[in-house]
Amino acid sequence: MNLQGRHLLKMRDFSGEEIKGLIDLAIHLKKEKRNGIDQSAELRGKNIALIFEKTSTRTRCAFEVAAADLGMHTTYLDASGSQIGKKESIKDTARVLGGMFDGIEYRGFGQETVEELARYAGVPVWNGLTDESHPTQMIADMMTIKEHLGQLEGRKFVLMGDGSFNMGNSLMVTCAKLGMHYVSCSHPNCFPARELVDYCKEICKTSGGSVTLTSDVEAGCRDADIIYTDVWVSMGEPFEIWEQRIHDLLPYQVNARVMSYAGESCLFMHCLPAFHDLGTGLGRQIHEKFGLSEMEVTDEVFESPASVVFEEAENRMHSIKAIMYATMPR
Ligand code: CP
Ligand code: NVA
Question: Which of 89, 108, 249, 276 could form a disulfide with 53 if both were Cys (CB 3.0 to 4.6 A apart)?
Fold first, then answer.
């Protein structure tokens, strides 16, 4: 597998074989690090830019630690402290940063922005999350499943809640390409877009996977290998839509009853951050306004043995390392 010089903008751009290659590379790099193997000669002296127009804990830290492990330097740029988008277009920014850096990570709003950055940068661009997709998260998620269940193909993967935003889109495409059985279990208002569902169903004809949309929680979760959820309102969406989302998605909260439909060995996953208690400012605000103390997942499930969310978070670092390692031209 040679991915040198490639961008990682969305999962549609990668074949099932390429995705599997990245997952296996991430598992390999994780083992190396666990065994104390020094990886700092791999990309020594290279420089990467990290652009974040939205906030981040995992993705930013994963890029910074992975880059340091590989011997690279990072420069962090946020929306307030740079010219990006205000005084300088993405096209110009791409050409400026492409002249100084060997790779660029971008987190922001529209998918077209990261696509434009990639068109003009002349160096690999990695999408650290847009409204449409979250590809680096996919490698970490699938790596975590592989570590626990051994095999990805044929697994039943259920996304409870919002299936229509970055996580739902990327998970559906990834599962389809890997021959998994993807279920979007949600209110019809939060199902993925028809065009993307059709694309995935086409892919499934050769991968052996399947895509199902259902609003029936018990049938949707029966015999699931993985139950996954994401926040009900994503970064960049207005606060005003919480009321509608709570109305639509509360029946799709991941709780002990939902997990019991799946069975003993089912994993619980979440890209994080999660609203599972009142430990956040926004969580308390929602509690005051709507009376809910847990949202997309109950604290009981979040803290249960089925939950692999913190391994999944650690795997963001190993998988982002694999993505940079594989795509950086030598
Ligand atoms: N899962 C994820 O992307 O987390 P951050 O928003 O903290 O980067
Ligand atoms: N859908 C979430 C994912 C966070 C990692 C968001 O965009 O806020």
Answer: 108
